[in-house]
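tokens incoming
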């Protein structure tokens, strides 16, 4: 367990040391073996069947899910007493990352092993777990999660599905339609959310074979075509009272807490997808010749390769840093704690903001990478025979499911301000200190002999900038700031990029002494390249928030703060990108 356990959002007002973050280079031999097993399974069994899966051979999907069960890949998050492995979140994220190369199959896997199974793990009774968990961990049964409805997506609590207690009190009668259910046509067990007496939002375990359960036709989707997505229709379905999951009226706890892990796991999965996409992009660039030479030799292509690698490095650093934060927190909870999973869920909920950051940053990173890989392929990127086209189509859903990126962006400052009002994080005090700091002389030039000194100084300034701009907006709008969505979205972009940048810098600082000179030079180039781009995004978002919320002298002060705190001069940036691009070209894949 870590010597210091950080609170959620604490990174904005404190400084973490390089030895206080978990990084991919810290994986144990056991974790690496699980990663290798997953990678081999995808390469040997899933990828050869990918075309069948894309054409919706769901028998093949079910078969492969059972193979996942045989390999232990459905047991990672499940308690040992129910046949699971109960491994840490870092291992769970590693499996999600490695399986992402399977395309649509990874969606079926994630839905089953994550939001399909975890509600039962966290909230199920002993009897419910004994009845269902072994079937799910073996792959004998497939799981699905039914929250969205035709008229309620982001507004999940606006669901209209109803549950009425029978006259004899033995069962609930469920009616309604659930929309966009992943694994809809292949699932044996659904976690269904409905309102008891049209008021109390509640979760139920519904078996596919219960009378009145039916599924609609497969949705005709833009991407992830090989995953089943259907409506689930409930027509007077009699669900035994023993299948109520959790407490009546407390379904929101299940829905939202499980989504925290779903968002986090999505971050790992899309990071893996980006690695596969970059590998296909650079291999094409090495083979494709124009004007008598490989297009990988041209600066325009090299810059794309470098930028993709830098973004993936930051994404990977962010995901596993967050895994370490959650694992450190969960390690403080003794297994004999009464109501262990209540405490466990609170431990995960502590990092709800960071889970939202992972979902937004990583999904948008993949969007960037997929777009660039299509561009590297040129006209062939638009042709189905080449993988770039599939990456591009499959990528798009990641910014929508597990809560749209807009909803997740709003959650970031919303969570921060709520915690500040509760006194859980001294945001107002730190904001006042940051405002006072504006009257002091500019900070000293960083010591170039210290690794990443310039980037660390930049991060310290960016945190001050967030506190100044957010503090000004909070002071102006007070409690009404919750309705100023444009301001909140801009503030969220500042926070997201600070966390990503700090994660990349801390990882690089930690691993640099372990690396060869060449690999160390490439990692340094990745960090400097990413920091340059992220800093530009932060400056733009901070200016936007300032213009949205202030005017006159106060606006001038805020704009001055943007100029001061985003000062960063990465001399040799072009050479950095060329070094990074050459490293990618030599490896013909993501090189770290």
């Amino acid at each position: 367990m870590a010597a210091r356990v950080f609170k959620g959002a604490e990174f904005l007002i404190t400084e973490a040391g390089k030895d206080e973050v978990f990084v991919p280079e810290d994986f144990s031999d056991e974790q690496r073996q699980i990663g290798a097993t997953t990678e081999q399974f995808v390469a040997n069994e899933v990828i050869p069947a990918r075309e069948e899966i894309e054409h919706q051979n769901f028998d093949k999907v079910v078969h492969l899910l059972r193979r996942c069960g045989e390999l232990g890949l459905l047991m990672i998050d499940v308690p040992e007493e129910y046949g699971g492995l109960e491994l840490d979140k870092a291992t769970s994220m590693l499996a999600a990352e490695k399986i992402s190369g399977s395309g649509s199959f990874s969606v079926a896997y994630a839905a089953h092993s994550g939001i399909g199974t975890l509600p039962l793990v966290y909230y199920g009774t002993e009897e419910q777990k004994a009845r269902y968990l072994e079937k799910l961990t073996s792959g004998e049964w497939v799981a699905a999660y039914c929250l969205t409805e035709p008229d309620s997506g982001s507004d999940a609590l606006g669901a209209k599905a109803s549950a009425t207690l029978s006259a004899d009190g033995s069962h609930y009668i469920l009616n309604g339609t659930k929309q966009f259910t992943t694994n809809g046509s292949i699932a044996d067990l659904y976690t269904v959310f409905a309102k008891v007496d049209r008021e109390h939002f509640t979760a139920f375990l519904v078996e596919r074979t219960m009378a009145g359960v039916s599924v609609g036709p497969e949705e005709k989707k833009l991407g992830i075509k090989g995953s089943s997505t259907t409506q689930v229709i409930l027509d007077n379905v009699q669900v035994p009272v023993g299948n109520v999951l959790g407490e009546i009226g407390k379904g929101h706890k299940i829905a939202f807490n499980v989504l925290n892990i779903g968002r986090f796991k999505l971050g790992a999965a899309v990071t893996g997808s980006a690695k596969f996409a970059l590998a296909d992009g650079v291999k094409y660039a090495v083979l494709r010749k124009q004007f008598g030479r490989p297009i990988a030799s041209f600066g325009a292509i090299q810059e794309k390769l470098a930028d993709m690698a830098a973004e993936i490095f930051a994404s990977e650093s962010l995901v596993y840093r967050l895994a370490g934060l959650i694992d450190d927190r969960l390690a403080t909870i003794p297994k004999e704690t009464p109501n262990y999973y209540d405490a466990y869920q609170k431990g995960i909920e502590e990092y709800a903001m960071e889970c939202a950051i992972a979902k937004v940053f990583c999904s948008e990173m993949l969007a960037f990478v997929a777009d660039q890989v299509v561009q590297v392929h040129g006209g062939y990127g638009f042709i189905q025979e080449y993988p770039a086209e599939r990456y591009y189509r499959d990528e798009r859903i990641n910014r929508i499911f597990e809560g749209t990126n807009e909803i997740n962006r709003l959650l970031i400052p919303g969570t921060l301000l709520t915690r500040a009002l509760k006194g859980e994080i001294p945001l107002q005090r730190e904001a006042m200190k940051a405002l006072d700091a504006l009257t002091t002389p500019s900070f000293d030039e960083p010591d170039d002999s210290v690794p990443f000194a310039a980037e660390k100084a930049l991060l310290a300034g960016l945190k001050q900038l967030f506190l100044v701009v957010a503090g000004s907006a909070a002071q102006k709008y007070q409690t009404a700031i919750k309705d100023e969505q444009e301001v909140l979205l801009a503030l969220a972009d500042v926070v997201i990029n600070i966390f990503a940048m700090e994660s990349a810098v801390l990882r690089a600082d930690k691993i640099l002494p372990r690396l060869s000179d060449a690999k160390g030079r490439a990692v340094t180039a990745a960090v400097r390249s990413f920091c340059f781009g992220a800093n530009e995004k932060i400056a733009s978002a901070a200016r936007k928030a300032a213009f949205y919320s202030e005017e006159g002298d106060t606006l001038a002060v805020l704009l001055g703060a943007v100029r001061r705190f985003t000062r960063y001069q990465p001399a040799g940036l072009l050479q950095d990108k060329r070094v990074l691009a050459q490293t990618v070209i030599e490896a013909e894949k993501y090189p770290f």
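note: The mean pLDDT is 95.
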